[in-house]
Amino acid sequence: MSLEWINQFSVYPLVALVGYLIGTSNMAMYLAKLKGVDLAHDGGTGNPGASNALILMGWKAGVLVGAHDIGKAVLAVWLAGVLFPGVAHPGVVAGVACVIGHMYPFYTHFRGGKGFAAYLGMTLALNWKFALALLVVLAVLLLITDYIVVCTMTTVVAVPAYYAAAGHFVLMALLCVASAVIIGKHRVNLARIANGTEIGFRSAKRGDHRVR
First vs last Cα of the chain: how many Å apart? Predict the structure, then answer.
């Protein structure tokens, strides 16, 4: 084991910390506090993320929260590359940590969002061409199914599969960590689809479940 490899490996906790701290920023919580909305108890999904912001606060809030969550993951990947240029794949480590930070922020007793937008942002920063192609597929799926969770499951499976097909198995393994956590967080959504109680995208956009 070379000294250079050991030195690189010792930097990864710092890379992950940077990504995690960026990931803990939560626009849904900021907007909810400003508007006097209780994300956990006012209806919707109870989740501090873009989908619930859309349901409870309208499409402008949903777009702003989604853009923020995507943007912070892009920032985490980019910043890791700038700060740690001599480390192998710092962007993936920081991106995965950013997703985890979004889902488990330390200041809310580790209760955060479900990670889909942050995962998309990480994918966009790592490979924008693949991310744009994926977004086209997701738009078609959303149009057909009306469920954001279907897009989420497609994304977290497709991204590691893409890197596996390209022969980047280390990257695939790292991405699978974030994918597995996201899938676990969405079990309740999948159960609601099965029993017909999941809130569809078009219904959320219309504000059918919004607190008046």
Answer: 62
